[in-house]
């Protein structure tokens, strides 16, 4: 930054005893102080901003719902990615391709996961209907 400033002000730079060193030292000091003040202002602004709400786990949606204990246990065995995919497709109504991009999967992988979810939860008719409705 100091040398950039020297280049920018090359026509106004004052040499002392035929040396540029004093000007460079003063400029470097001033640039450092300006940066320190900027960091302090930024820290004060961040201190005043309330912290963001903590993201909820996808399983919290199922915990709040009135679910059969067996179904609740089946859902608790799923990975967070599978639960998120199921929530987005079955409950939020997103198409599989959009839900897949949100979760970070390809559409084919998301469809395969939903198929496996369907197979794993076939014992409960309500969940099977939800997952089968996710074929779109």
From TrEMBL:
Q: Which InterPro entries match?
A: RNA_pol_sigma-70-like (IPR039425), RNA_pol_sigma70_r4_t2 (IPR013249), RNA_pol_sigma_r2 (IPR013325), RNA_pol_sigma_r3/r4-like (IPR013324), WH-like_DNA-bd_sf (IPR036388)
Q: Which UniProt keywords apply?
A: Sigma factor, Transcription, Transcription regulation
| GO terms for MF | DNA binding; sigma factor activity
Could you tell me the Gene Ontology terms of the biological process aspect for this record? DNA-templated transcription initiation
This protein's record includes keyword Transcription: yes
Q: Where is the RNA polymerase sigma factor 70 region 4 type domain?
A: 71-121
Q: Which family does it belong to?
A: Belongs to the sigma-70 factor family. ECF subfamily.
Q: Please identify the protein, giving its name as recorded.
A: RNA polymerase, sigma-24 subunit, ECF subfamily
């Amino acid at each position: 930054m100091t040398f950039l400033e020297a280049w920018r002000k090359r026509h106004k730079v004052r040499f002392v005893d035929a040396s540029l060193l004093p000007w460079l030292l003063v400029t470097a000091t001033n640039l450092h102080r300006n940066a320190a003040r900027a960091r302090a202002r930024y820290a004060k602004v961040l201190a005043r901003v309330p912290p963001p709400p903590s993201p909820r786990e996808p399983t919290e949606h199922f915990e709040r719902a009135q679910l059969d204990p067996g179904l609740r246990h089946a859902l608790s065995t799923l990975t967070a990615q599978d639960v998120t995919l199921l929530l987005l497709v079955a409950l939020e109504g997103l198409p599989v391709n959009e839900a897949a991009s949100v979760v970070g999967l390809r559409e084919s992988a998301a469809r395969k996961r939903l198929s496996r979810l369907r197979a794993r939860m076939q014992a409960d008719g309500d969940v099977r209907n939800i997952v089968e409705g996710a074929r779109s």
